[in-house]
Helix-turn-helix domain-containing protein
Amino acid sequence: MDTEDEFLIGPTHRELLDQVLDKWSLSVLSELCERPCRFNELRRAIPQVTQKSLTATLRRLERNGVVEREVVSTRPVAIRYRITPLGKTLRPPIDVLLAWASANMPAITRARDAFDLREEESRMGG
Amino acid sequence: MDTEDEFLIGPTHRELLDQVLDKWSLSVLSELCERPCRFNELRRAIPQVTQKSLTATLRRLERNGVVEREVVSTRPVAIRYRITPLGKTLRPPIDVLLAWASANMPAITRARDAFDLREEESRMGG
DNA sequence: AGACCAGGTTTCCCCATGGATACCGAGGAC
DNA sequence: GTCCTCGGTATCCATGGGGAAACCTGGTCT
């Protein structure tokens, strides 16, 4: 974690993006953007995620100040996760990214098909 | 790769982002945005990347239609990688993301420190 | 007392990513 | 001929992320 000579885009940025854009973060974030959720609410909302991964994701997001963990001292204690102001600032960038993905998915699919075809051809008649 | 029931943000989008925002893509992309580069130019520009990883990154980006591989039939054949028009459309979203990262890095660092401190305290006096 | 839910933690395991290293064929440079 | 560069491919191995599943500590219900 030493900050020696860094090149463009720096490991620091990359690491941050890895923490915030990892496999389940986007789903969790998009869920928490609509309303605060309890742990098992999130599990039900994102059935594919395992407890372990959800816990890890929430901890990571919490550590980076993107979500808050609130222990509600009601009768049997509830845990409520909510997005922070900092977390909210993350939406626009993500939305831009997802918009790009949506808009260009067809072009990308075409590119992939073309690439795979070329590859296959070169394997056959190469 | 079957498209069964998908939830918000879809695996499709996630997978795409994984392909395009992986460890070395940002560096390669930022390099190719300035000028077309040959393989070993890229290696020299991004010394940390290994041949294997650079090859993999370029193939992946090529497959997704983001960069082009051009075989220049000069005397000893050169390979020139350049960004495609589709690839260029990727810049704004990435820039927005990096701008977010830069702008909020201090807040995030503070959040991490606070989190780590809380954790340590709870381990000590828990 | 037994069953059940919330909110996890822990353990085990698999497999994909990535680094390091070696090799390789073609084409100059000496 | 010998060495170097270019543009890779092939191989080995370590690390780590993520899934499955068990366990656990409350608290409620009945």
